[in-house]
Amino acid sequence: MFQRIMVPLDGSELGELALPYAAELAAAFGSQVDLLYVGDTKSPEQHHMNQVYIEKMAERTVGLIKNFSPVETNPAQANPVILDGEPAARIIEYAEKNNVSLLILVSHGRSGIMPWPMGSTAAKVLQRTDKPLLFIRAQKAVTPSGFDSMFRRIILPLDGSASGESALPHIKELTTRIASELTFFRVVAPGYHVQTIGGLNYVSLPKAQIDRLSDEARQYLDRLSAEVEGSRATIKLEVRVGDAALEIIKFAAEQDFNLIAMSSHGYSSSDKWTFGSVTHKVLHSGRTPLFLVRARL
Asked: Rounded mean pLDDT of 176-200?
């Protein structure tokens, strides 16, 4: 699931936040990392500048891979690629044609040598590809030291549906190679909305029912966590009561998680998929890196 990783770069330090994540996965799985630069390649001067930059990033990525894997079991691979055209379209096209396993995107990267903002490009790619995505929030640069992992603590929110479990096989594979604390997370709603003549009313559940639902949620998480037995994951279970998106965002921030792994839900057209309302809120309001997998139908 992580054989070939693609990282689009825009020439900025923010865009380069993706490199340590790609490097650690490449070190663990022997993955090839494709560093993709999409921009103006018609001018000889610009093309040379682009080439120098992307080759420098390839060298840096190889160094990061070796940092995560000092004992070389697989040769570090970082493939610099330069393309011309509309960034989002070329990123998606390259991922499809080259059987990319994972795209790593940064939420925003400006003021580099590339003429396009990563934020708008990332949004287009998020909406138009069915590839698994690792979405990194723009923030100050993260520099790993020694064997510090980018995946130390992972939260896996689940909603009880089969489609909501789509990210689990990827996280299972990740934790077979990378030691992580993995928290299976479920949120129980304290009530529900009812359409009435006067409008939409909210009905609160009695405490006894909430307690019963919470017990069932914990049993579900316990049963599902058995699927990662034998991996390098330390398993924890957490059940909260409240609004699902808000509780995911709050818990991830409180516990300083490195990654939220979630499934998408639903389609808007034959060539474009949308996120479920909870995933959409976590994507746009949370600050923790987010791993997204298209829901199994």
From this structure: 89
For residue 13, which of 143, 135, 102, 103 has the smallest C-alpha distance?
143
List the one residue out of 261, 260, 266 whose CA is nearest residue 296: 266
CA atoms of 258 and 152, how far apart (whole Å): 6
Is 153-293 in the same CATH topology as 4-136? yes
**Alpha-carbon span 70 to 95, nearest angstrom:** 29
Paired tokens of 85: 């055209």
Q: pTM score > 0.85 for this model?
A: yes
CATH superfamily of 153-293: HUPs (3.40.50.620)
pLDDT at 199 over 60: yes
Question: Cα angle at 99 between 165 and 28, to 5 degrees?
Answer: 65
Q: Is the pLDDT of residue 157 over 90?
A: yes
Q: Are 159 and 213 in contact (CB under 8 A)?
A: no
Q: How confident is the model at residue 21 (pLDDT cuts 50, 70, 90)?
A: very high
Judged on CB neighbours under 10 Å (0-12, 13-18, 19+), 163 is: middle
Residue ranges of the domains in the chain?
Answer: 4-136, 153-293
Phi, psi of 207 (to 5 degrees): -55, -40
pLDDT of residue 252: 95
Where does the pLDDT of residue 13 fall: very low under 50, low under 70, confident under 90, or very high at 90 and above?
Answer: confident
Homologous superfamily (CATH) of 4-136 is: HUPs (3.40.50.620)
